[in-house]
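Input.
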Amino acid sequence: MAILRLPIQTLGLLLAVIGLYFLAPDHSLLYFNASKIAQGETWRIVTGHLMHSDTEHLFWNGLGLTVLGTMIERRSPALWRAALFSGIASVSILLLTPVSHLENYCGMSGMLNALLLVAIWMEWRMTRSWLVAAVACGSFMKVVIEIAAGVSLLTHISWPTYAWAHAAGLAGGLVVVLGALDNPCSGVRTG
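Output.
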């Protein structure tokens, strides 16, 4: 009989994100802002990924974190942390380049795409199911369509979606997957 572990890291992060949203008196002090980061406000590199523009944004990102985080953390807490940090790093690197042209950014959707790629990879390793492959293809196509159209396909929040952050998150997830391939220390349990 398998014992399901409580996803403590996922639940802890979810509570922190919710608390940050409702307790921060001025959300703009926590948004990712490249010029403010360059001036020394380096906390924004992390808090920008944890702050949200409105409650709908918080709800959808919180739901994504709960589902994907739980899937990954129950199998490998180490890969959960790797995907989280790689997603934040890859999106932050993109946002700090002149390519992004963004004044402010907030939300977990970029980082969640790193978790998504790792979760899909873990499911694929366990099942080799055509359904997992279809979800992967659909997820990648969603990002491509959002980049091409410049709009979100599934949500409509008070800020416009920056789909390139989703692509950067997928790249961060790919880094984790490539690092975990054939790595006996990756912590992935396949059965």
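DSSP finds eight helices and no strands in the chain.
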